[in-house]
């Protein structure tokens, strides 16, 4: 029988990932769009790497960096009493790294679509960068924020490779729905696998449908 | 309170098709409404953007009232949000999600300032109308009110009449002239149509004249430009 716990873990993971990335990527995208130097592009391309890297590569480096045997992993454990390997916080961090491009790119595209004159008008009306960011930039990219949130949430729900390597499939803690499906297939419990797969498919389609239907209804001539 | 404006600056705009060097100098007395004209691509709009602080000159000086907005010599560059230069864009750039009141109130320090500005342009009745439901002429007046409500030291208008229908233009030129007179603000109006500026009865500088003033400022004090008698009257009225 399929369990509910993996879905709860997946939902928690997706929620944390989406919130953290939303808060981090909004100012990051704004900053990136005000810096035209090549080094900013290089930094951006590094952060975008997880879009094309195999999850195993990300997982491998994550383990190398944060395992309790490594200097960084040891330092984090000593400073915060936090172990990142095979725990939910570690899984959430890895998920943020993997899902970053989906949130960041979508937000950046939405921000770039804002008429720059609206921002300039705000400046000449006596509002500084911070106030303009909150009162002009963010309100004028709400549809884009919605898309970014849906896309990131759906992707975080479905993440598998890194989740398996970093999370380690600890029942009730880091075993996500997609890992549960994988293990059902491994154990040849096919009816259970079918239920997991169908639920993930339905949810993902729901997210994508919301994304498509909330988007522009403009037709090209 | 409005302010007199003095500027003299130079900036090179670089692009793939070649560099474009803009040099301009001029002066506006307190309360003067002044026209600025030139062909397309001559850098008229850039002059406004430089004055508003949206672009940074390579060298020169900009002063408004008692404030120094830019001085390459003293290393001063005041950002646009601290200049109080009200810039009205050619396409108005109203905040589309806000209604008329929301647009006008945005830069105002009090409801009172916003109400006064909205009354000045005669659109109090439309304050709940959304910005994208307005006609071109209404949008322009909202954009003007939005700038005036923020109590600017100077008003900069970029092609205020060019987005409007030919038939409406003459009437609106009269309306705008009357409105600017009532607002009592030092105003620089950029337009490629001399006839529009003539209709508004303001003194006019061409970009060529402004650029020759840069190269060859009068030996005594600051470069002076022609000042309309009406502006002198207004200046007296403001001081008294």
Structural class of chain A: mainly alpha
Largest interface: A-B, 18 and 23 residues
Using only CA atoms, what is the Rg of chain B? 17 Å
Number of strands of chain A: 0
Give the termini separation of chain A.
Answer: 52 Å
Q: Largest sheet of chain A at a glance?
A: none
Helices, strands, pairings?
The complex is a heterodimer of chains A (221) and B (240).
Chain A: H1 5-32, H2 38-48, H3 55-66, H4 71-80, H5 88-112, H6 116-124, H7 129-137, H8 142-158, H9 161-167, H10 177-186, H11 190-214
Chain B: E1 5-13, E2 20-28, E3 33-37, H1 44-52, E4 59-64, E5 67-71, E6 76-77, E7 85-88, H2 100-106, H3 111-120, H4 136-149, E8 154-158, H5 166-183, E9 186-191, H6 194-199, E10 203-206, H7 207-215, H8 229-239
Helix pairs in contact in B: 2-4, 3-4
If you had to describe this structure to a student in words, what would you say it looks like?
The complex is a heterodimer of chains A (221) and B (240). Chain A is mostly helical. Chain A has a single domain (5-213), classed as MetI-like fold (Orthogonal Bundle), CATH 1.10.3720. Helices cover 74% and strands 0% of the residues of chain A. Chain A is built from 11 helices and no strands. Chain A has helices at 5-32, 38-48, 55-66, 71-80, 88-112, 116-124, 129-137, 142-158, 161-167, 177-186, 190-214. In chain A, helix 1 (5-32) crosses helix 5 (88-112), helix 1 packs across helix 10 and helix 10 (177-186) packs antiparallel against helix 11 (190-214). Chain B is α/β, with parallel strands linked by helices and 240 residues long. Helices cover 35% and strands 23% of the residues of chain B. Chain B has 8 helices and 10 strands. In chain B, helix 3 runs antiparallel to helix 4. The two termini of chain B are 13 Å apart. The chains are: A mainly alpha (221), B alpha/beta (240). Chain A binds chain B through residues 115, 117-118, 120-129, 132, 135-136, 139-140, and chain B through 52-54, 79-87, 89, 91, 93, 95-97, 106-107, 146-147, 150.
């Amino acid at each position: 029988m399929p369990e509910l716990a993996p879905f709860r873990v997946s939902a928690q993971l997706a929620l944390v990932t989406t919130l953290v990335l939303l808060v981090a990527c909004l100012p990051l995208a704004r900053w990136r769009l005000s810096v035209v130097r090549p080094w900013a592009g290089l930094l951006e391309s590094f952060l975008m790497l997880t879009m094309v890297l195999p999850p195993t590569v990300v997982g491998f480096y994550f383990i190398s960096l944060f395992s309790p045997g490594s200097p960084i992993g040891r330092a984090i454990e000593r400073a915060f009493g936090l172990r990142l390997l095979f725990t939910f916080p570690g899984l959430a961090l890895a998920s943020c790294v993997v899902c970053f491009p989906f949130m960041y790119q979508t937000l950046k595209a939405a921000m770039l679509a804002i008429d720059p004159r609206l921002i300039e008008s705000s400046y000449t009306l006596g509002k500084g960068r911070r106030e303009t960011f909150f009162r002009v930039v963010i309100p004028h990219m709400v549809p884009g924020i919605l898309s970014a949130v849906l896309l990131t949430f759906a992707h975080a729900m479905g993440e598998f490779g890194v989740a398996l390597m970093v999370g380690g499939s600890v029942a009730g803690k880091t075993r996500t729905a997609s890992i549960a499906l994988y293990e059902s297939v491994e154990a040849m419990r096919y009816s259970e696998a079918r239920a997991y797969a169908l639920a993930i498919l339905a949810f993902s389609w729901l997210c994508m449908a919301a994304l498509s239907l909330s988007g522009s209804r403009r037709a090209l001539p | 309170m409005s302010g007199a404006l003095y500027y003299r600056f130079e900036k090179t705009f670089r692009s793939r098709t070649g560099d474009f060097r803009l040099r301009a100098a001029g002066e506006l007395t307190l309360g003067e409404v002044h026209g600025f004209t030139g062909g397309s691509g001559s850098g008229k709009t850039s002059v406004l953007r430089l004055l508003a602080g949206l672009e940074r000159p390579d060298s020169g000086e900009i002063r408004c009232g008692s404030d120094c907005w830019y001085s390459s010599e003293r290393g001063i560059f005041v950002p646009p949000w601290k200049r109080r230069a009200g810039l009205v864009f050619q396409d108005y750039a109203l905040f589309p999600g806000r209604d008329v009141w929301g647009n006008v109130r945005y830069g105002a320090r009090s409801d009172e300032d916003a109400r006064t500005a909205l009354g000045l342009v005669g659109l109090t009745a439309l304050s709940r109308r959304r910005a994208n439901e307005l006609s071109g002429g209404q949008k322009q007046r909202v954009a003007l009110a939005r700038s005036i409500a923020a109590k600017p030291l100077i008003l900069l208008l970029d092609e205020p009449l060019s987005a409007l229908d030919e038939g409406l233009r003459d009437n609106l030129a009269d309306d705008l002239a009357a409105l600017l007179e009532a607002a009592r603000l030092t105003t620089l109006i950029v337009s490629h149509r001399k006839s529009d500026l003539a209709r508004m009865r303001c003194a006019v500088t061409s970009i060529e004249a402004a650029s020759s003033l840069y190269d060859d400022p009068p030996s005594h004090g600051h470069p002076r430009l022609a000042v309309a008698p009406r502006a002198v009257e207004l200046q007296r009225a403001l001081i008294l």
